[in-house]
Amino acid sequence: EYLSKALNIQVKLVFSKNYSSLAQLIKQGKIELAVLSPFAYVEAKKMHADLVPLVTHIADGSSTYVGYIVTRIGRGIENVRELKDKTFAFVDRQSASGFLYPQAYLAREGLVADEHFKKIRFAGNHAKVLEWVHKGYVDAGATYSTALKLASGDVEAGSGFKVIAKTGRIPYDAYCASGAVDPKLALEIKEILMNLSTRDEIGRQVLGGAISINGFVEVDDVHYDEVRDVARLIQVDLVKTVDSAK
Question: Do the Cβ atoms of 58 and 212 come closer than 8 Å?
Answer without folding.
Answer: no
